[in-house]
Amino acid sequence: MNPPNVPALTVDELPADAVILDVREPHEWHAGHIDGAIHVPMNSVPVTLTYEPETIPTEGRLFVICGVGGRSAQVTAWLVNHGVDAVNVAGGMHAWADAGRPMISDSGGPPTVLGIAGGGGGEPRVV
After folding, report:
1. How far apart are CA 112 and CA 124, in angstroms?
2. What is the pTM of this model?
């Protein structure tokens, strides 16, 4: 799912101090996300980088994640083309959950990763 020439690594290869940019939609983020990750939905990345550049760290390496890796690969390619040292997290939040990595939720319930049917909708997976 990673386009050619887009740097990528797996969840297991992420450094412990990784700065993570989550580009999923707000309903996906609220259902479950990585504690400490930065949330900027995919379509908001260009305007955020232009008008609120402090929101997205551009010093050092930035690891970009979405549901399964497709959207984050596109954002990673865009960031790299704009001079940011960005790397796609292959497999996205589904790989994160499958690896048993911790998550939090804004819903008050257990964190979930929403399915990919319907562009990120689908049935939730409780992790």
Report:
1. 6
2. 0.89
Which uninterrupted H or E stretch holds 47?
helix 45-51
Catalytic annotation present for 66 = yes
Identity of the amino acid at 58: T
| Domain 8-126 superfamily per CATH | Rhodanese-like domain (3.40.250.10)
The active-site residue out of 66, 75, 87, 95 is 66
Report domain extents, the chain. Answer: 8-126
What is the three-class DSSP state of 23? Answer: coil
Taking the C-alpha atoms of residue 42 and residue 9, their distance in angstroms, rounded to an integer, is: 19
pLDDT tens digits, 32-72: 999 999 999 999 999 999 999 999 999 999 999 999 999 99
Q: How confident is the model at residue 4 (pLDDT cuts 50, 70, 90)?
A: low
